[in-house]
Every structure is written in structure tokens, then in C-alpha cells.
Amino acid sequence: MSRNIAEAAATHREVTGSQLVSLASAHKRNTGTDFLPAMFENMSVNLSATERRTATLATRRTVKKDWQAAWLVRAIECIDLTTLAGDDTPGKVERLCAKARNPLRPDLLKALGLEDYGLTTGAVCVYPMMVATAVKALEGSGVPVASVATGFPAGLTPMKDRLAEIAYAVGEGADEIDIVISRRHVLTGNWAALYEEVRAMREACGDAHMKAILSTGELKTLSNVYKASMVSMMAGSDFVKTSTGMEAVNATLPVSLTMVRSIRDYLRFTGNVCGFKPAGGIRTAKDAISWLILMKEELGDDWVKPDLFRFGASSLLGDIERQIEHNVTGRYSSADRHGMA
After folding, report:
1. 241 belongs to the catalytic site
2. Which CATH code of 3.30.870.10, 3.30.70.270, 3.40.50.170, 3.20.20.70 fits the domain covering 6-337?
3. Active-site annotation holds for 277
4. Which position has the higher pLDDT, 341 or 310?
5. To bridge 247 with a disulfide, which of 181, 211, 217, 228 should be the other Cys (CB 3.0-4.6 Å)?
6. Which of 80, 99, 175, 178 is catalytic?
7. What pLDDT is recorded for position 13?
8. Which residue intervals of the chain are DSSP H helices?
């Protein structure tokens, strides 16, 4: 990746690599910055180099046996357990919340020595109409409720309606809001409009943390992905998220690497910390470990914790539980023994 950031560097202090860890460890919400095109406008991402880098992730670093189980437990803590379907009902959401409270069977927790650990998923993510149900079902658990909003998944509703949807979800008790950006602003290069849109959404979120969904499969190039990530962070996004899970192409490792490096650049040049959430198509324990390796290698240990990293997933937990059961018993069970809701 290459960039021209002379103007940005003159405007903001550059953070050295040794300072990244201390900043992340004591991070607060991303406050955002002024709109600074010099921080991203000349960025060009090399697709071939990005693909070569991500192709080696799972081959250069492997985790086995008890270490693998430990990594998978951490993956569970980072899952936004999600249901975003037209047939969602209060009962379905309540069952999902019960799973979020107790993501592993008691016998597996005991075998791992984690019966008193208090393991939960990172959050539960639902539509705004289901927020109140989730809040009630998760009361006292410490598991936050996330809600998609702003005309999810396309984001093609009037701005006043998008902001009203945020206000409704927050009013129902949502702790986190996953907004969708207008892809047309990216595809036409109207970065100022994207900044103003995301900034308005951040203000509407109030105290709720905001994740900006870029729908990277619709942004055409990795350079667009980088720029959209940077603008969303400038506008105050607490997380940048790959996808709605409903595009033809969702989370991929090359896209994720591009976004993760934009987070690193943003931190270096502003001192502000931002989290990352890949979503859509991450279904296996092997997938989860690949993304955890990416985060550890590119950003460090603070980004393999739920404060700064989440998986958006509905079926991932089932495969992780199945893999942990294999670690404990030496046998694979059938997938239907690990249903979600």
C-alpha cells in the first residue's frame, strides 16, 4: 500500500509503533476528526500483494490441541450472535439470547476448566423491532444488544428515516448500532457526502457504539474499501464492518487486511482507536482462527478481544462448539447437535 499523507501528517501527530499498544489498551470511543482527504485520497491498494499476504496466514501460523481450544474460546467471546431474518419471532430471539448467555455446554466448560469463567458471546445482533425482546432476555448477563439500522441492508431510505430508525433502536435499549453506508457515495467518489452521512448517524447513536457497515462486496476495489474505512473512522465510527451478510461477496481476508491496515493508519495519524468486524460467510472454526491470526499479526493482542473485534455470524458458534467437543472427547459430533435457536 502507498499513500500521500503529507498534509495529514502536518495536521495530526504521528503515533509510533511502540505507542500503539498503550493507546489500544487504554482506548476510549473514537472521537472522529475533521474531514481530511489528504489522509486517504491518493491511497492505492495492490490487489496481488494483498492476496499474497492473506494466502499465507493459515500456513505460517498454526494452533493445535489445547491452544486451538483456547483460541476458539476467545473467538466465542468475539461473536455478535446474529439473527436478521424475515421469520424472526420473540421466541427465536429469546432462544438465541439463551445461547449467547451459555454458548458452550456445561460438560465442555467443565472439561476446559472454565465452569466459573462466565463465558458469553460478544453481543446479540437483531433488527430494531426485536431489541426490546433481546434486552429483556439478556438482562443481568452483561451481553450487549446490537441492532442494525439505517435501512439495512441497502441503506436506500431517506436520511430522516434512517436517523429515526437509529433513535428507535437506541430508545428500545440497544447498546450498539450497526449502520449501513450509502455505497453510491463511494462509487462516485463523493467522500465529503459519506463523511457527513456517517457523522450524522454517529450523533444519532448518542452513547451507543456505532459500527459502520461498508458492504465491501459492492465497492468494486480494495482502494475504495480503504478510503471508505478511513472516512467512516474520521466521521466517528467505533468499528468498521465488512458486510451486511447479504451481499453476493461478504467478508474476505484481502478485504479484511485492507480495512485492518486502514485502522492502523488511522490510529497512527490521529491517536484514535477503532475496532473491526468481519461479517458474512464466516462459518467454521478454521475461518475464525484465520481472522484472529490476522488481527494478532496486524494490530496486536488488544484487537483479539471483544472491545475491538467482533465476528458477525449466525452459524459460526455451532462449528466452534463442535470443534471444542472434538478437542475434549476426540470425536466429532453431528452438526445438528449444536443448534442456535
Report:
1. yes
2. 3.20.20.70
3. yes
4. 310
5. 217
6. 178
7. 38
8. 6-11, 17-25, 47-55, 57-60, 65-77, 90-101, 106-112, 131-137, 159-171, 183-187, 191-205, 222-234, 253-270, 285-298, 316-329
